[in-house]
Write a structure and sequence with these properties.
mainly alpha, Transferase(Phosphotransferase), domain 1, 9 helices, 36% helix
């Protein structure tokens, strides 16, 4: 799968020394990008949502529920595409099997996870809905609280109102992902393919990968621009304090 951060192992090394190496994602993580941008244009959001749908559908088809889908666990490769990482909380669920462990990140947790289960793969789609909500609006539906207990109460009592300022397709998508009933939650790949929000998008991972994400690469180039020396014009450095003595190495 194109949009998963893979582990690489050199099998030519002795079995007692097989250090796993992750794919290098030079741009960083989605959370840092979001903090610098505030909110994303719908076109960028649509691309990222498509890539995340493909990843989650792939994992779910293998029976794997990630259980910690969040911006900090999504890296960006050299072309600006997503790479889902950190499978430390993931679990394989056999057909019909359910999980009961309360785990993940509070702001992203589905209601059925917070209640102690039973829950399954639809919990990941709720987390994706929270992620897209934050990317689209520049803020989480549940603001940060001073402590864990307060945060838990806020998450449990949140009504998750979708802002009317968002486009119709996006509002519909968020309402279907943030559906409290996991059985009615949007969760199958063919439903995403035919969804209003994804109209005109390809769900072919190879085709998506061929086109760099100009928005992300543009931000990276701007961040790498050398700082103007004029920014240091008011910097006060008293060279006389060294009394003419050379500086120690």
């Amino acid at each position: 799968m194109e949009f998963i951060c893979c582990l690489h192992v050199d099998l030519s090394l002795p079995l007692s020394f097989l250090p796993p190496v992750c794919s290098y994602c030079s741009i960083g993580d989605l959370y840092s990008l979001w903090k610098s941008v505030g909110r994303f244009a719908e076109a960028v959001l649509r691309l990222f949502a498509t890539e995340l749908v493909l990843v989650l559908a792939y994992l779910h088809n293998l029976g794997i529920v990630h259980r910690d889908v969040k911006m900090e666990n999504i890296l960006l490769d050299e072309q600006g595409h997503l790479k889902l990482t950190d499978f430390g909380l993931s679990r394989h669920l056999a057909c019909g099997e359910r999980a009961y462990t309360i785990c993940g990140t509070l702001q992203y947790m589905a209601p059925e996870v917070l209640s102690g289960g039973p829950y399954a793969h639809p919990a990941d789609w709720w987390s994706m809905g929270i992620l897209l909500f934050a990317l689209a609006t520049g803020k989480f539906p549940v603001p940060p609280e001073k402590d864990h207990i307060s945060m838990l109460e806020s998450v449990k009592s949140c009504s998750y109102v979708i802002p009317s300022s968002l486009g119709l397709g996006l509002r519909l998508l968020l309402s279907e992902l943030l559906c409290p009933d996991p059985q009615r939650r949007l969760r199958y790949l063919h439903h995403f393919r035919g969804h209003l929000f994804f109209r005109g998008m390809t769900f072919d991972a190879e085709i998506l990968r061929k086109q760099p994400v100009d928005f992300v690469l543009g931000l990276q180039r701007a961040a790498e621009t050398p700082m103007d020396s004029a920014a240091f014009s008011d910097f006060d450095l008293d060279l006389a304090s060294t009394s003419g003595q050379p500086c120690p190495g």
